[in-house]
Amino acid sequence: MENLWWKVFALLLCALLLFLAPLLNILERQDDIAYNVVLAECNRFVDACRDTGYITPNMYREFVDRINSTGNTYEIRLIHIDRAVVPVYIQTGGELTFTGEYEVTHITIDENVILDTLFPEGNASDDETNRYELKMGDFLFVEVKNRGKTMTTAIRDMILFSDTRTPSIFVRAGGMVRNEAY
């Protein structure tokens, strides 16, 4: 009788593994595809913004729609670093004398400022006033990470009795603005 319970347990374990292992493999492939789509769309969006020197509401909406087509929900973070090069002067007596040095300053502009410029309250049209402009030499970065758990993470957590808090899809893209086409 004791052997019978072990055989039933082994049969249930084999059936479970024969079902879950291929399912987990398929879902991991789906996560890889979603990651590749998000990576490609982030690079496409950031390159378009860096090449034109601005972000329009239409560009941002299209970017969000494309990454949401993967079936996951994402947290998107825009980072604009305003870069300025200022010559350094020394005041001697009543004159300003150029020292031959330059000071580079970086000011990080919050994502809320960018989104408020793109989508002001009461005016959701895609016109020139809603365009967020960048200067050549500024930096623009986009970070995208999934909010909830993907199916792969949920099943893996169920099998391993764990609770994964880190996002399974996390992408960063960006760089220096190369052009001002406005």
Q: Could you please describe the fold and organization of this structure?
A:
The chain has 182 residues and is α+β, with helices and mostly antiparallel strands. It has one domain. The chain contains 4 helices and 6 strands. The chain has a 4-stranded antiparallel β-sheet. Strands 1-4 form a two-stranded antiparallel sheet. Helix 1 packs antiparallel against helix 4. The longest helix is centred in the N-terminal third of the chain and has 51 residues, at 2-52. The termini are far apart. 19% of the residues are buried.
List the helices and strands and how they pair.
Elements: H1 2-52, E1 54-55, H2 57-68, E2 74-92, E3 95-109, H3 111-118, E4 132-133, E5 139-146, H4 151-160, E6 170-176
Essential attributes:
29% strand; 45% helix; four-stranded antiparallel β-sheet; 4 helices; alpha+beta; 182 residues; two-stranded antiparallel ribbon
* Number of E strands: 6
Which overall shape is indicated by the principal axes computed on the Cα atoms? elongated
The number of domains is 1
Radius of gyration: 26 Å
Structural class by sheet pairing and helices:
alpha+beta
Estimated helix fraction: 40-55%
Brief write-up:
The chain is built from four helices and six strands, in the order αβαββαββαβ.
